Amino acid sequence: MTDPSSSHFVVLLAGEITPTPRLRAQIANTRVIAADGGIAHAEKLGLKPELWVGDFDSSSTADGEAYPGMVRQAHPALKAETDGALAVEEARKRGATKITIVGAFGGRTDHSFAIMTQAAALGLQGLSVLLTDGQEEARPLSSEPQTFDYPSGTTFSVLAFSDLQGLTLTGAQWPLDAITMPFGNTLTISNTVDGQLTAALTHGTALLLAQLQA
Predict the structure, then answer these.
(1) Please, how many CA atoms are within 13 Å of residue 20, restricted to the half-sphere of its CB?
(2) Which residue from 18, 22, 50, 210 could staple onto 156, CB 3.0 to 4.6 Å apart?
(3) Burial (CB count within 10 angstroms: exposed 0-12, middle 13-18, buried 19+), residue 197
(4) Beta strands in 108-205 (DSSP E)
């Protein structure tokens, strides 16, 4: 279902997805933009994209025939941006304040890295961003404490893209209290939720990545 007045956009990428009830709830009543091969996920998730963007090297025109009202925006294969970045840019042009990127993990390592760094940058700009494939989720951290709804026992990591200052974790097996952590340190890899997980970061760029339980 699509709410044409919504500022919550879903961007469909071509990575693998597991269409769990949690994922379906996260994308309900949103506006949808598909990036190239991400169009293949629209039907299985019950979504109707309003825009299909990319160079279409991993899809064909026939893939969009089920959506007659959808606009198709073609770009050359030789371009500076990834198809996913173009889709996110279009969502922002249409007034997105919250973006859920579906199919964000798996596939080529360079593309996964680009998606994660883009999400981190969007978070620094004040947007609410969720990366998900139904089995893993990632969100940018900020100075505003965030509370997560993951049950106890969920494995999570904080992925740092810079030096971190003031990193605080509560509701974790290994809590942290406003620590400073140099870039490249692995201290925050493979922690476990123990209660209600809350995270905050004073300075730096990082994502909290959770492995969801089946």
Answers:
(1) 17
(2) 210
(3) buried
(4) 128-132, 136-140, 146-147, 155-160, 164-172, 176-181, 191-200
36: which residues sit within 8 A by CB, 6+ positions away? 14, 53, 54, 55, 56, 57, 58, 59, 83
pLDDT at residue 77 is higher than 80: no
Q: How confident is the model at residue 67 (pLDDT cuts 50, 70, 90)?
A: confident
pLDDT at site 74: 79
Dist. CA 202–CA 180, nearest whole Å: 10
Of 19-33, 107-121, 192-206, which range is least confident?
107-121
**Chain position carrying tokens 């025939």:** 65
The residue to which tokens 């709830």 are assigned: 25
To the nearest 10°, report the CA torsion of 33, 36, 37, 38.
Answer: -10
Residue type at 57 in one-letter notation? D
Classify residue 196 as exposed, middle or buried by CB count within 10 Å of its CB (0-12, 13-18, 19+): middle
Distances (CA, A) of 41 to 12, 34, 48, 190: 7, 9, 10, 30
CA distance 107 to 90: 23
Domains of the chain: 8-134 (3.40.50.10240), 146-211 (2.60.120.320)
**Lookup: tokens for 202:** 């004073």
pLDDT in tens, 123-153: 999 999 999 999 999 999 999 999 999 999 9
What's this model's pTM, rounded to 2 decimal places? 0.92
